[in-house]
Write a structure and sequence with these properties.
seven-stranded mixed beta sheet, 4 domains, 17 strands, Rossmann fold, alpha/beta, 25 helices, seven-stranded parallel beta sheet, 587 residues
């Protein structure tokens, strides 16, 4: 090392005198060559750097050496040359190109979630329950599952089980349905092979506990509840752990006092639905434009999300007859159409009279009404339903609901909303129906092409008014019962008989009023015992509210009777022989 340093000093000393410095000028090309080489190296380094960039993202170590090749060229101050390597911002094309690769990667990444979220709609087309729905029903279910608040109007009560059952078959999360006739709906929908649980006054305590455990597991499930349960804190808390795919509202027309029946719980329907935060699908019978507008407001629907049900094509006729000619007209229809068929009367006494007349004329028939014992009714219905029998059934309509309380237990003592048999030839109203809504629901029993006839005379309007005045829930009875309940101690349950006596009402009237209070979630009924869950002030306020709503419902009875009379006269041919008209069922 010492010798080499001396030699270098000597060569430097020799180089000082004379014009020797020109020699290093000749050697200057070497740095130029070096610079050229470094430039070439840097050019080669650029693609290497570009190639290294993606590798750098995954593994930082691999090929960091090309960058080191640029560093050594310190003296050529091609820091300027190295800066073009900052067109590693030219690696920004790589950033532009990167989205192209993630686009493919994103598809692959999203494939699994898409199967979980979107594909519930594809099983929709393959679900046997969904395939059985009409076009209008399928459209309503799809709209609701897409998150749009949807109303299907002119949908008979008999279609609720199929409608909400099909919706539940398309999703992997629970579907909750509130219905004034929750017990009937739960029984009907359980026939479809779905996992169904229910909560309400009709469910035993041990069954309710088992249902609560099943709800915690979530998954594909249909939950049927009474309207009052929409305000139950326990149910809301349970559903916060198992979010809903859909919230169904059956018989949504009962939220309006301008319909033919009223559910007190549905008066706060908008508030109840907001607490669940799920898409809404509501169904209602054929009703007025005013009622449809109130339902839309309650569920937050727009005119575009109101779907009209597909009407059935039936042969419909009406006759204005004298009382003496009524039975002859009935006999002519039975002979002309044949059995099986249903004759609907306004009262149980009239049902007995018609049954006796048909039996005397040799027509095979049975009768079933609320005045008979349960055993007699069951036996008669079993005979009528049997495929081996071809009989005429004389009964009362389960859709008349003279009390005006939706889901009133008296309304469904004989038949349900589902047709007792699928091959009915006719439905005959022996007197004018109580409302257009009742007639619509009664005719929903008939298959396509069947026959409908209404027999009416001038005395029917007075009969209908008398029936409704007698059986509608009276506003005065509501306020009296609210005052009596306010005096009941919270820790001491009362009984219906005692409350009826204190309120000065009949036992039957008291039962209807108490059912309305239970529907409004103001009292709890358990094995005949009644305890209040609202304060005296709240009971008084709610009593005034319900009194006003049922008064409005009674006031609209006259206009409904006029609509029925208009229907009869519009389809009346002449007093002796009405000309049948083939048309689709609408109110």
């Amino acid at each position: 090392m010492a010798k080499s340093s001396k030699a270098s000093r000597g060569s430097a000393a020799k180089a000082r005198p004379g014009k020797r410095p020109s020699a290093p000028l000749k050697k200057a090309p070497k740095p130029a060559k070096a610079a050229a080489r470094s430039a070439t190296a840097s050019k080669k380094a650029k693609p290497a750097a570009r190639k290294a960039a993606p590798a750098k993202a995954n593994k930082p170590q691999p090929k960091a050496r090309p960058a080191a090749a640029i560093k050594p060229t310190k003296q050529s101050k091609p820091a300027a040359i190295t800066k073009p390597a900052k067109p590693a911002a030219v690696a920004k094309p790589a950033a532009v190109a990167k989205p192209a690769k993630p686009a493919v990667a994103t598809k692959a990444a999203l494939d699994q979630p898409v199967i979980a979220v979107v594909k519930p709609a594809k099983p929709a087309l393959s679900s046997p329950l969904f395939a059985r729905l009409s076009d209008a029903e399928q459209r309503a279910v799809k709209l609701a599952l897409q998150g749009t608040p949807t109303l299907i109007e002119s949908s008979p009560r008999a279609r609720d089980a199929a409608l909400f059952g099909a919706a539940a078959s398309l999703v992997q999360s629970p579907v909750l349905v509130a219905s004034p006739l929750a017990a009937e709906l739960a029984e009907q929908v359980s026939r479809y092979g779905l996992d169904v649980i229910a909560f309400g006054s009709f469910v035993a305590a041990d069954v309710a506990a088992a249902n609560a455990k099943r709800l915690q597991r979530g998954g594909q499930l249909l939950i049927v509840v009474e309207p009052a349960r929409l305000f139950d804190a326990t149910l809301r808390q349970a559903l916060s752990k198992a979010p809903l795919a859909l919230l169904g509202v059956a018989a949504a027309h009962a939220c309006s006092e301008h319909a033919h029946e009223l559910s007190p719980a549905y008066l706060s329907l908008r508030e109840a639905l907001g607490a669940f935060g799920a898409p809404v699908l509501a169904s209602c019978t054929s009703t007025s434009v005013r009622v449809v507008g109130q339902i839309m407001e309650a569920i937050g629907a727009s005119p575009d999300s109101v779907v009209r049900g597909d009407p059935q094509e039936l042969t419909r006729a009406a006759q204005v007859v004298r009382s003496s000619e009524r039975k002859a007209a009935l006999f002519n229809l039975v002979l002309g159409q044949g059995a099986p068929g249903i004759v609907l009367t306004a009262t149980s006494q009239e049902a007995d009279s018609v049954f006796a007349e048909l039996t005397a004329r040799g027509v095979p028939c049975v009768r079933a009404h609320a005045g008979m014992s349960p055993a007699e009714r069951s036996s008669a219905l079993a005979r009528f339903i049997s495929p081996a029998e071809r009989l005429v059934l004389v009964t009362q309509s389960p859709h008349a609901n003279a009390s005006g309380l939706a889901g009133c237990p008296e309304a469904s003592q004989v038949l349900t909303s589902v047709a007792p048999r699928s091959d009915l030839k006719f439905v005959l109203h022996y007197q004018a129906p109580l409302s257009p809504e009742q007639q619509f629901e009664d005719l929903a029993w008939l298959p396509e092409g069947a026959h409908s006839l209404v027999l009416a005379d001038s005395s029917d309007a007075a009969l209908v008014q008398a029936l409704l005045a007698q059986q509608r829930i009276k506003p005065a009875a509501i306020e009296a019962m609210a005052q009596v309940l306010a005096q009941v101690p919270e820790d001491r349950p009362a009984y219906a008989d005692t409350l009826a006596l204190r309120a000065g009402t009949s036992r039957r009237s008291a039962e209807r009023v108490l059912s309305a209070f239970a529907d409004r979630n103001l009292i709890v009924r358990d094995s005949g015992q009644i305890s209040r869950r609202a304060s005296p002030d709240q009971l008084a306020a709610e009593g005034r509210l319900l009194s006003a709503r049922f008064a409005a419902l009674r006031a609209a009875d006259t206009s409904r009777a006029e609509l029925v009379a208009r229907y009869v006269t519009s389809r009346h041919g002449n007093a002796d022989n009405a000309a049948p008209q083939r048309s689709r069922v609408t109110a």
